[in-house]
Amino acid sequence: MTMLGHETPWQQWREALAGERMHHAWMLAGKRGLGKMRFAMAAARELVAEDGLPQPDSHHPDIIVLNRLPKDDKEDKKRADGKPYETKRNIAVSQIRAMQQRLNTRPTLGSRRAIIIDPSDDLEKGASNALLKSLEEPPIGTYFLLVTHRPARLLPTIRSRCRIVRFPTINDDDMARLLSAQAPDTEPATQHAAIVAANGSPGAALDFVERDLGPLFKLMQDIIAQGDPDFMLRGRLADAIGARPNRERIQATLDLARSVVSGAVDQASRANYPAIVDAHAELVKLTGQAPTFNFDAGLLVAEIGTLLASAAPNRERANV
């Protein structure tokens, strides 16, 4: 079954697959939570399948997936046990080098091999430079699928070698039907908040419900609407996020804050546009930096609250 918003990407992929010369590198671009990785896996299976060759149902030897590894041995054991685990901040150059070693051999089952990098936004600098060499001189039968939430973070030389497939956001009516089907016990008010906060991303909407982000969303809306001159709302925001939030919760909080700031534009006066734009730009910067630096969680949460307060109407933005 095709996921919402995947009709055009599938059309582009299958037309290329049926053509005489399949492009060797593809960038799957769009917001987080649009199902790009699921598309990549399904597309890779179509790519490597050949008539008369049985294909494994689970792990495929000709589909190589590179993503962030577990942070340490303790987290690696959690992964082996099927438990949630924390990852490293980046995809390392050593992972690209290991993949390149495999490219010196022929595919195992057929004539094609797929390399999926998810997310390619998180390649460290050395890894990006190493990958570029493979994109410049790809081995015959090797195809790259780069999943990216923020294409601008990739090297221009990598982007220029990829065919870009863009994944659209989903309209509110389709999002409501999706939530009703996959999270049927969600209260109407929470469902509405999830749709508004997710801004067209089904994965973000489901994450909103699963992580119970409604209280965070309401506090953020209050801060950006009325400011926080006595710091009370920011204190409640910190309590709602928790004293030791993991990386995934921090990421969800940053994404939610960006959505709240973006949504404030419609109600903003012309005079307040610059403050909203500046706050959004700083949140984008924080979102990009958070996976790569060891932030003090308390300070990061305080900064998120301060940026939200800075986007409040001028007359109410005190002590930011």
Automatic annotation (TrEMBL):
The protein's matches in InterPro entries, at most eight in alphabetical order, are given as:
DNA_Rep/Repair_Clamp_Loader, P-loop_NTPase
| Extent of Basic and acidic residues compositional bias | 69-85
Mention one GO biological process in which this protein takes part, according to its record: DNA-templated DNA replication
GO cellular component: a single term: DNA polymerase III complex
Region Disordered, as annotated, extends over 51-85
Stored SUPFAM superfamilies = P-loop containing nucleoside triphosphate hydrolases
What PANTHER family does the record point to? DNA POLYMERASE III SUBUNIT DELTA, REPLICATION FACTOR C / DNA POLYMERASE III GAMMA-TAU SUBUNIT
Protein name, per record: DNA polymerase III subunit delta
Organism equals Pontixanthobacter aestiaquae
> What lineage is on file?
Bacteria, Pseudomonadati, Pseudomonadota, Alphaproteobacteria, Sphingomonadales
